[in-house]
Amino acid sequence: MRLAEWFSGRPLAPGEDDVLEDVVKSGGTPNIQFVGWQTPDEFQKRLLEVLTKELNLKAANDAEGFDLKLGAKLSNEYLYFNLGAATQAEAWQILSPIRASPQGVAQVNRLIHKTFKKGTIEFARWPGWKRKIPEPMGLEEIVYGDKLICLKNHERNAWDTNAGENIEGYLANGEIGIAVGQFKTAKMTKAPWALKVEFASPINHNSNGYCFVWRLTF
């Protein structure tokens, strides 16, 4: 929280800068690295460079490598987000302490989508029965394989993978999930229409299963 205050635009209280003093003097630690930028374009370039290095991607536009780091599995030239993908998606995050401005949540999301999800968005717009995944949803154009975060506490219908049954599950604010469906199968008579999301954490105190939001609404 003290680190986030550095990016709030508010004056820092006396002594608040000591949280990074040792890191600045030493040039970095195994856990913290500083990367400077001056303009919005430079910020985007630096962010993609860091992602490429930290995720061990082949290049700054390695969409396949990016999805594999989100938990996708490659099979027959398709990347599938199967059950369990959400567990891997919790292994790393891109965080911003602000919503607006070039380094805010909205702009970072757009940059990630433009760089790594362009092909998936086009895939989601295939016409009619040829489409294999749900159409992009909402202003953010959420698609199959996107990482999502729950923004409120609420009860949801869920599927317990251990018990093999539907239950009422509690979904908490801040839960991280991955859109794992729908992906069209031979048994489906029409194009996919519902976006299903898997959340990695247990859905309640009595179950270790996964929770699905069967249809996202905007």
The general outline is: globular
Helix content: 25-40%
- Radius of gyration, in angstroms, nearest whole number: 20 Å
Number of strands: 8
In terms of DSSP E residues, the strand content is 15-25%
Total of DSSP H or I helical runs spanning 4+ residues: 7
N- and C-termini, Cα separation: 31 Å
The SSE string, one letter per element, is: HHHHEEHHHEEEEEE
Low-confidence stretches: 203-218
Structural class: alpha+beta
> Major β-sheet, in short?
4 strands, antiparallel
Strand line-up of the largest beta sheet: 3-6-7-8
Q: What value does the average pLDDT take?
A: 82
Descriptive notes:
By secondary structure, this protein is an alpha+beta fold. It has a domain at 73-213. Helix content is 25%, strand content 17%. The protein has seven helices and eight strands. The chain has helices at residues 2-5, 21-26, 40-54, 63-69, 85-89, 105-116, 118-123; strands at residues 73-75, 78-80, 147-149, 154-160, 165-171, 176-181, 196-199, 211-213. The protein has a four-stranded antiparallel β-sheet. It has a two-stranded antiparallel ribbon with strand order 1-2. It has a two-stranded antiparallel ribbon with strand order 4-5. The radius of gyration is 20 Å and the shape is globular. The model is unreliable at 203-218 (pLDDT under 50).
List the helices and strands and how they pair.
Blueprint: H1 2-5, H2 21-26, H3 40-54, H4 63-69, E1 73-75, E2 78-80, H5 85-89, H6 105-116, H7 118-123, E3 147-149, E4 154-160, E5 165-171, E6 176-181, E7 196-199, E8 211-213
Antiparallel strand pairs: 1-2, 3-6, 4-5, 6-7, 7-8
